[in-house]
C-alpha cells in the first residue's frame, strides 16, 4: 500500500559522473515512486542536466526545506542550491564537486536523524573528489559512521550480487598490513555485522561462510596459522552465539559454493578477496550496503563511470537493485522499531 512505502532520500552523487542521469531514468521509469516516497536531494540545475542527458521527463515538486517533505506527494526534489552547473566539466575529478556531494550526504544524514527520512540510496560518488573537497575519510562509510555516531561500533561496506552478500574483516588498507589486522575480535565483528545486516535485508536465518586468508586454507598450519589461531576460534565463538556459520574454506573455492547457493554471505579477509569474485560475476548488477549504520543506506557498486558520463547510456540495473534493497531495509527497520 502507498502509505507503507518508506520515505527515502536519493542524493544525486558526483556531478561529473553518471549519477544525475541514473536518478532521472529511475524517476521516469517509476522505480522511485513504486518502492518509496522519494525525495531527490541535490541542486535542481544538476537534476535538469541529468534529465537532459537521459532524454527523459517526469513530474516533480521542488521544495527547499525538509519540513516540506510530505509522504505520498509524488516525487519531491529537495533543492540544495549547492552547485552552479554553468561551468561543470563532466568526467573530471573536482574538489568543488567532491565538497558538494559530501555536503549533501551530510545534509541527508541530518535529515534522517531529524526524522524526515528513513534512509537513502545515493547515486555514485567519487572518493578522490570528496577528499580534495575537504572530507578526509578513508571512504564514505567512515563519513557515515562519524556523522551518525557509530564509529565506535562495527560498521563497513557489504556488497550484494543478486542473492549473495559479502562482508570483509579489513578493507582499504595495504595488503602488507592485512594479516596483523586479522584478529578473533575483528573476525567476530565481521560475522556479526554480516548476520545482522542480512536480517535487515529480509533473511531470517542467514547462512554465512568464512574465507581463509592463506593458500589452501593454510595447509594445516604449514602455510600460515591464521586459520588455526584466529579464524577457527572466531567461527566457534560465532556459532556459540547462535550464528549459522561455516569455514574457514580456501578462498579459491569458497565462492564456487556460494554462487551455487550453499551460502547467503561470504566473510572475506581483505578487499579484493571478495570484490574480484563479485565483480567478475556481475559488475553491472552489484550493490554496496553501508552496514552497521542506524539507517538503510545503499548505492550501486559500479561507481561514477566517468568514461560514459554525459552519453545517456548508463545502465540502471544496479541502481534499481540498490534502491529496492534500501526500501526493504527501511521497512524492516520501521517494523523493528514497532516491536
Automatic annotation (TrEMBL):
Gene3D superfamilies: Isopropylmalate Dehydrogenase (3.40.718.10). Coiled coil: none annotated. Pfam families: PdxA. Its EC number is 1.1.1.262. The keyword Metal-binding applies. One of its GO terms (molecular function) is 4-hydroxythreonine-4-phosphate dehydrogenase activity. Keywords: Metal-binding, NAD, Oxidoreductase. The keyword Metal-binding applies. Signal peptide: none annotated. Transmembrane segments: none annotated. This is 4-hydroxythreonine-4-phosphate dehydrogenase. It comes from Youngiibacter multivorans.
